[in-house]
Write a structure and sequence with these properties.
The structure is a homodimer of 180-residue chains.
Chain A (H helix, E strand, L loop, with lengths): L1 H9 L37 H20 L6 H12 L3 E2 H8 L3 H13 L3 E5 L7 E5 L1 H21 L5 H12 L7
Antiparallel strand pairs in A: 1-3, 2-3
Chain A binds a DNA duplex (23 and 23 nucleotides) through helix 1 and helix 5.
DNA sequence: TATTGTTATACTCTATAACTATA
DNA sequence: TATAGTTATAGAGTATAACAATA
């Protein structure tokens, strides 16, 4: 813990190869493949949940690579988008939109605020409530992020026709509608 | 940490309301909705990555509820399936199949072994290598898990025709094939 | 009393680096 | 030297419970 905090403080010397964690595990062997033949996956490939989880992981990895030195996760990106679309948004409202507990939001917003991307300040009428706004730097960064996300999205759909892409979106939305 | 270890040890007394974490956040307000109108999501609903991530989270929640007191995650379930399909599998091979670093596997297998579901033991020819097998208890539990997963999968696809389900699976597999 | 944001705490999942024991 | 498994450590993401300020 102490070491971790010290590391955070020690950053920003001359950007010494930031050492973000790898997103894909290193190959287990030089070849990256198991020595003796192929591993059987049983019923997993027939499970929607499995395909969804696997695909989501690959997409997540591609997203992180797309962001590269801008150091942004899908979750934080989504928060910036929602704050931009709802200037003065309350934390509780963002938590609701992001389907997170409001306590979960606090460290995420701390991070965005520490990076100078978001401002939160108490509103006049009810001093318990924080309104949130993008700073000019936040808006500028978000503009860049959107471009990268657009290219990322193009990569995701590279093997789909526009119709297939829409079909996929629609089918996804029809999974567990009772929970949405 | 000490408390956590103590909890693990203390399990299996008389099953005193295990206190698993909630999977969905508590509603922020009594109504569960933000006070003033609807939150705009901007471009998020048009992003494949967003729909995928959201859907995956809902599916994950449903999976956990389906497992209920059997306390099983999609990842651990997948490991049991793969071990069953490949008796004597090496840890490195499982790591490769699950796309995890081999160090990541260790605590997961510790957990499965501590629950008496999996055995690992050094193989004769190369004493660095552990082979893995399901125990009889592991096989029995997996049988139960498969039934629950089957019902879970039915719920996921409840609003899809069989053809649509296959279409969805196929479209998912066509995302980022270069990473598979 | 109820709500908003916060803190303290904990748990899951995942990685990297360095280590041990074998090969 | 190289590989298999392990340990130590770290970080992201998420939750619950309890609290202070405010309504």
């Amino acid at each position: 813990m102490a070491a971790s905090a010290a590391n955070k403080m020690a950053v920003h010397a001359a950007k010494p190869a930031v050492r973000r964690p790898r997103l894909l595990p290193k190959p287990a062997t030089a070849s990256g493949a198991p020595a003796n033949g192929t591993v059987q996956l049983g019923l997993l490939p027939n499970l929607l949940g499995y395909q969804l989880r696997l695909t989501q992981r690959l997409v997540f990895d591609d997203f992180a690579e797309a962001m590269d030195e801008l150091d942004m996760s899908p979750g934080l990106f989504g928060m910036l988008i929602v704050i931009e679309a709802n200037p003065g948004l309350k934390q509780t409202e963002l938590a609701y939109a992001a389907r997170l507990d409001r306590s979960t939001l606090v460290p995420a917003l701390d991070k965005l605020e520490a990076r100078g991307l978001v401002t939160r300040r108490a509103v006049l009428e009810d001093r318990r409530v924080n309104g949130m706004w993008l700073t000019p730097e936040g808006s500028a960064l978000l503009k860049k992020l959107k471009q990268r996300v657009a290219r990322h999205e193009q990569r995701l759909a590279r093997n789909l026709t526009p119709v297939e892409r829409v079909t996929l979106m629609t089918l996804l939305e029809r999974i567990l509608p009772e929970r949405r």
